[in-house]
Amino acid sequence: MLGGIFGDIVGSVYEKPFHRAIEGFHLFHPNAKFTDDTVLSIATADALINNKTFKEAYLDWGRKYPRAGFSKDFEYWLACSNPEPYQSFGNGAAMRSGPVGWLSKSLEHCLELAKNSAIVTHDHPEGIKGAQAVAAAVYMSRLNRSKQEIKDYIQSQFSFDLNRTLNQISINYKFDMTSQGSVPEAIICFLESTGTEDAIRKAVYLNGDTDTQACIAGGIAEAFYNDISPELETNIYSFLTSEMTMLITHFRSKKSEPQT
Known about the structure:
With 260 residues, the chain is an all-alpha fold. It has a single domain (2-252), classed as ADP-ribosylation/Crystallin J1 (ADP-ribosylglycohydrolase fold, Orthogonal Bundle). The protein contains 15 helices and no strands. It has helices at residues 2-11, 36-49, 54-64, 72-79, 92-95, 98-103, 107-119, 125-142, 147-158, 166-172, 183-191, 196-205, 210-225, 230-237, 242-252. It is globular.
């Protein structure tokens, strides 16, 4: 799950400035920070390894870090005494679902867990699809499936158009927080990438919802390439709190062996 957090931190400063270059920008900008993508990805991991419901974990972590950059709808959800799903089809469920792919025991189990992680807030079909697609891509990457196999499965299962190229998308692409308008594009960044860093750079290049799309692309890429060095790990952890680092370390020790 470090790839997703890596992407979130890198993308955190590039939403407002217009950025149109894959290379030549600082990965760890002086103003970079973790955002709600990191907080809720860690919350997903917490639920999976500590016998919490997803709702409990999201409330717990969300209320600990209220200034992480949550959407207005999610902030309202956090403030409620008994929060209920709000039919969201935003990309928030997808951005936090990567950890599901790391602890799933089968693809069917992965889809079920991803749906359960989504519906506590994002119970719209598009919100659920986004979460399932990202978790499935992580899971299949861990099975050493090829990019073509991952692409074919996601297109057939979720009806995402993954046949566009990054250059074609970038011509008219604009900031889009919907699942259907940002998750396929983030997956394409992974499909065209040569490594985790490259996937993140490509997601930033799109100039959309950069932290979330880089989180999604980076999370899938890490599972596929397994290329995050110890030095890079140290850099990523330097942006996080001690309780975040401890939870991630615990989570990474719990990874299950995927089944075909």
